[in-house]
Amino acid sequence: MTDGFFLNQLVGLEDTGLSTLVWLIWLGLMMLFLFYPTMSQRIQLGYMLRDLEKKLARLKLVKDEVRQRTIETIKRVGKPEKDPTQDVDKLMEFFVISPEDMDPYGIVYKLEHVLEVGESRFEEEVRKISPAAEGYKVKTLANLLEVARTANYLYRIVRHYYLLGKKTANIYLILQLQMLMPQLMEITEALRLASYAFAYGQPIGDGIGVLAVAKLAYGREKARYEIAKDTTVSEIEFENRRVLIVRATGPGGTVGRPGEGVKKLIEREGDNVKLVITIDAGLRLEGDESGKMVEGVGVAIGGPGVDKYKIEEIAKERQIPLYAFVVYESIVEAITPMKEAIAKAADVVVEKVKSVLLEKVPAGSTAIVAGIGNSVGIG
Amino acid sequence: MESIQPSKMVQKYVPPLTFLTCTHCGTENSRAFKEDDYVFKKTDEVCPKCGKNEMLIVGIYVKEKEKKA
């Protein structure tokens, strides 16, 4: 009696050479999983690594595409004497080290200093490689390089965890990376589309705050001046109320320094300021409608928090109420060319701001309206 | 590294339109975006209705397809 015959008798099969072979393979696999329990994990890890490999290849494609578009745009707009490729590659590795926060006292101003130095240095470098570009275009080119830098950073981070997970065969590391990949791929695609917007100077979704205040000021402007770096104030008169409109100076790509601008205006105007309104793009949740305007209180400013802190600090000191309007959009919509639904929300915001000014600001007083966001493509 | 078919993931870039208003007769017009266009820029383009050559850019955005009811 053979082993195969015995096994086949157990399950009622006829003894053929093939069935014996199948049983032996089956037994072999059972033994393998018994004595090597991480086998299934290894197989799963292999599948996940292959999936990540494909996505990493896509990230590299996007990073290279954005880099190439940046180089071509600098050649077209900046007309450098020598090939800017090496300089672009150098700037794609540029970094800013955030200040030490073990002792948090004064951290906001330290952070502001570091960010300002970083921004100026980055802009200087872009200006050097784009001698023929006008001032506002240098800012947009700096934004384009920021996009290329972010795409490069994202690619390097994903590659780091992929290689680390592969080297150490750490399924938990790879699992976490794989779970994050759909969002990272979405951001990568957004960066690719953002590179078109900055290459041609088109308004992006994040510029909705700037667009809304530009519409509010248009045709009513009595004076216009710079209050802080890349930040403009437009003074208008609305129904016997003085309105100081703060925004980033367009049409170049910059967010300006709205916090510093509002702070200086309040210090200058003293108790005349009765209200501060901020308007910004806000990240919508899945299921929310893009371009929907919502209102609340507080300071509607994203980013590292320096501008928000400055406005909150002085508003609290002077007991000035803070109103905020936010236009919903996704992270992709915020950095890609502005969509119709978002652009049209600007008119809704303007009407709402007007009614709040009438309702909350006494005649003869002053209000500050700050449009927050990137001013690319908005003059 | 394995190459992939990007078509499944790639979002197509849709260039925005530039919307202009004639400063004389208020006629609204749109065209494809051109480099150096920006919102509130006065251009010397000719109004298709009154023929005056001063139009104001009032919007630059990606036109969305109308949703079916």
From TrEMBL, chain A:
Pfam families according to UniProt: DUF1512, DUF1512_C
Transmembrane segments: 20-39
Domain DUF1512: 21-198, 204-378
Presence of the UniProt keyword Transmembrane in the record: yes
UniProt keyword annotations, A-Z: Membrane, Transmembrane, Transmembrane helix
Keyword Transmembrane helix: yes
Protein name (database record): DUF1512 domain-containing protein
Record organism: Candidatus Terraquivivens tikiterensis
